Amino acid sequence: MNQTILILDFGGQYCQLIARKVREHGVYCEILPFDAPLKKIIEKKPIGIIFTGGPNSCYRDGSPLANKRIYNLGIPVLGICYGAQLTAFQLGGLVATGPREYGRQMLKPKGGRLLEGVKKSACLMSHTDYIEKLPKGFKVTGATQTCPVAVFENEDKKLYGVQFHPEVAHTQEGNKILRNFLYNICGAVGDWTMGDYAQRAIADLKERIGDKTVLCALSGGVDSAVTAVLIHKACPSLVCVFVDHGLMRKGEADEVVRVFRDERGMNLIKVDAQKRYLDKLKGVKDPEKKRKIIGREFIRIFEEEAKKIGAVDYLAQGTIYPDVVESGKKGKGKGKKGSAVIKSHHNVGGLPKMIDFKELVEPLRDLFKDEVRVLGLKLGLPESIVMRQPFPGPGLGIRVIGEITEEKLEIVRNADFIYREEIVRAGLDRSIWQYFAALLDIRSVGVMGDARTYDYTIALRAVHSVDGMTADWARIPYEVLEVVSSRIVNEVKHVNRVVYDVTGKPPATIEWE
Ligand code: XMP
What we know:
This protein is about 30% helix and about 25% strand. It has 14 helices and 18 strands. Helix 5 (about 195-210) packs across helix 6 and helix 5 crosses helix 11 (about 370-380). It is globular and about 85 Å long. Xanthosine-5'-monophosphate (XMP) binds near residues 346, 390, 392, 468 and 505.
């Protein structure tokens, strides 16, 4: 059994990020609601407890409180933001409201165990309430210019608090502070790895699913691939449906069949729907219409296949933690209220209400993308799938600008293949977040040999991004662009011009449609 850190969730937006940071330090952790019964907390035998931040004021009626007996269990407690205020408040200190403080502040350490070895450095503050007076027995061990009690501790009782957020990247010494808590204060030994995560997840899935039927929509993307392989380890009878809509990149559909069916012996149903998609998309130019058709057809095909399979007990989805946040929490598929529709994103998130199944299985729900990748590698998936760059659900359908035809798909597929090959050759594939070719809806005049050409334009796109929400265009060396451009016009028929997109997001989006 792994050593366990318990995270009590007081409603803070960074709860999962704290969990992820703890895992990054090689320590197993579980998140429980703030009001989890004390018995349950004790049963977990945690080596330490972390209280998250939260939007409330701890002195107001109805605010979430911790069971005060937690402070006397002799288990180290680290309160973060609201969690720190709560610790001070519940043990007799004073918490008051001040002006909202958001942003980086310079943290000045003043000794103490939590800040051992921590240098004067920036930390991220995001709070309105502040600790005015600490309870007896506590001392201040860190302050900023605006926040006199930024860090405190009571070493005898093993209680610690930080007003800022050590879990975010803006806090320069955040990792060290968390490490001090985990290793020096809680006595962690770092006995957890992603392999343990896989084992635990497989055991849980086995228990939950038993010999029932599970259906999984496989797109070939990282998340659905890791989900399928993980579930397959627990439930070998898993049925995967892979819809080949003809909008995949070069070689991708074959690779999915090879990796999942041929190499792993998984039960994979490949639906050849290229013609069906081309028919439905014929004459459609509007990007939103294209997206809707592609998404709707996907659901229809999936439903048809599900019907053929018969009663399905579980539907598996590759939902990862950022999806849960983006779809407006708890994965109900709703967007944030009041936000504008920029693009109707298509992925399997829309499936559940259409298909008759008993329950959803989402084994990656708590993981971040890079953790999913590590897990995929642990499960033996090839790097070509696990390290794959993001690829939109509607695929090349939104990279052929305007009307989609078989010929245009072939052109963009070949141009994209050359581009990707050269980016890898130049050693840039790991440092660029996403790169692809789009085929524009214009033709222009060129000259080849001694003859006039009137042909298509390929636009190359490459961006740096963290989460796809904002992006900066990548400064690819001219020499690399030159090779890509010259190969594309020479090797791909009907292209006589290549341009490079130098717009960030915003104002552009990453995809062209
Ligand atoms: P945009 O073009 O909105 O893209 O700046 C941001 C990121 O999302 C990807 N993308 C999609 N992913 N379904 C997806 O799963 C979609 O419909 C979709 N549209 C865009 C895009 O490739 C980029 O990584």
